[in-house]
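Exercise 7. Given the encoded structure of a 443-residue chain, write a plausible sequence.
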């Protein structure tokens, strides 16, 4: 509909605007117009002000970017934040996390933990997240109510899990959820087999078949540690990624989380299949799992996105901080200060994440026609001065406290650091209640 017929719902006027696509561009004194939940205009300030708009927001000293995309996490694990720190992965999982999940995880736990995670992520500028946890139907209900965007994955393991007695029941429930949410504007359902060492060949082949039939993503921990790869070589005579390739799981819908171990053959499989890698640097550092070779993957043409992992192994859901860690770590791992510059790092946290989740036609960059998932970062503070490149100041000199405003689909979910749909004090009180209960049971 022509502009003179339909006024903009909202015109944002920041000091800087970084569309991410085209790459490396910083627009100064431009306006971004939103109509019907989508970006309808990006134009110089003077030109934008000529367009009729129901609301005009001046954003002096602020940088407008696409919403950040947390491409891997376990949302409700916020309630296990700090429960078992400073432990190696398998000890952490087998001796602490899995027993805690067996004891505590039910629908109420998922409800309170996921809502807490959504609030934390919105306050950190995250407009879309991928969730790989139990009771996905409960998590999707909270995503729906909150206004955030998400990929919800169906958890599949070879043993019983909270909410499903076996993999078959998990898949049955997941397929029902897929049908329920097929046309949801903000929720996409994918398959979430836990890891190669917890899911058998027959289950993986079933998931591959269903994913092809439904055009759904497959999200999986892969090559998280050297031990995982070594164990697979000893037990199966092949690396986990080679096994997944043999079973037909790799491809543009496949989301390989962690990938700290990448051989030449692994790299070739990722490139040839056009699979995605999701990098979780802080969780990998904390669990001493290894280093994903981000620059090597990028130069080979592999799409690399970024995720926080769960709050039990991070311990925050701060994607801006994660992106800074990723940029710094990439240089050390590659042995080059040129590796993963700030504009590419921001791309990891936005458009690459959207591509990994199969949402790059809708989100991930500020382009006319895309959904208005937008974040305003306040760069007017002491720690950001002086500003030569606002993206450099965002990645290297800012933290999530700089997030001032967040819109998802044109709806404002954070207004001047205040959540518009969620009660922060209530969420804190509920989390503290869980903390006392869980801590008390361990005494």
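Solution.
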């Amino acid at each position: 509909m022509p502009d003179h017929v339909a006024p903009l719902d909202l015109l944002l006027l920041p000091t800087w605007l970084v569309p991410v696509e085209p790459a490396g561009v910083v627009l100064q004194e431009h306006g971004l117009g939103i109509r019907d939940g989508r970006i309808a205009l990006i134009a110089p300030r003077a030109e934008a002000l000529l367009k009729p708009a129901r609301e005009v927001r001046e954003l002096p000293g602020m940088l407008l970017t696409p919403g950040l995309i947390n491409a891997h996490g376990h949302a409700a694990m916020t309630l296990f934040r700090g429960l078992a720190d400073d432990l190696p992965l398998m000890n952490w999982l087998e001796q602490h996390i899995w027993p805690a999940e067996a004891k505590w995880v039910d629908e109420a736990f998922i409800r309170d933990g996921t809502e807490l995670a959504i609030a934390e992520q919105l306050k950190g500028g995250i407009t879309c997240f991928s969730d790989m946890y139990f009771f996905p139907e409960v998590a999707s209900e909270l995503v729906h109510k909150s206004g955030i965007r998400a990929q919800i994955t169906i958890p599949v393991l070879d043993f019983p899990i909270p909410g499903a007695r076996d993999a078959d029941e998990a898949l049955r429930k997941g397929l029902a959820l897929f049908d329920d949410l097929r046309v949801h504007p903000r929720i996409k359902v994918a398959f979430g087999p836990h890891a190669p060492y917890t899911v058998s060949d027959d289950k993986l082949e079933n998931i591959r078949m269903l994913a092809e039939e439904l055009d759904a993503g497959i999200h999986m921990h892969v090559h998280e540690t050297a031990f995982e790869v070594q164990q697979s070589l000893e037990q199966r005579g092949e690396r986990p990624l080679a096994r997944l390739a043999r079973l037909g799981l790799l491809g543009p819908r496949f989301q390989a989380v962690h990938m700290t171990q990448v051989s030449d053959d692994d790299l070739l499989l990722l490139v040839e299949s056009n699979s995605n890698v999701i990098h979780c640097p802080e969780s990998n550092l904390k669990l001493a799992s290894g280093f994903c070779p981000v620059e090597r993957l990028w130069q080979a043409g592999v799409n690399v996105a970024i995720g926080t992992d769960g709050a039990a192994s991070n311990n925050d859901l701060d994607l801006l901080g994660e992106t800074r860690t990723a940029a710094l770590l990439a240089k050390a791992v590659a042995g080059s200060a040129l590796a993963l510059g700030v504009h590419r790092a921001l791309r990891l946290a936005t458009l690459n994440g959207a591509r990994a989740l199969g949402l790059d036609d809708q989100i991930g960059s500020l382009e006319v026609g895309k959904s208005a998932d937008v974040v305003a970062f306040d760069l007017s503070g002491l720690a950001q001065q002086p500003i030569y490149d606002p993206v450099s100041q965002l990645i290297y000199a800012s933290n999530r406290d700089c997030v001032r405003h967040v819109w998802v689909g044109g709806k404002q979910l954070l207004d001047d650091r205040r959540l518009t749909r969620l009660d922060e004090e209530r969420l804190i009180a509920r989390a503290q209640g869980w903390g006392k209960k869980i801590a008390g049971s361990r005494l």
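Remark. The longest strand covers residues 56-66. Students should compare their own answers with the one above.
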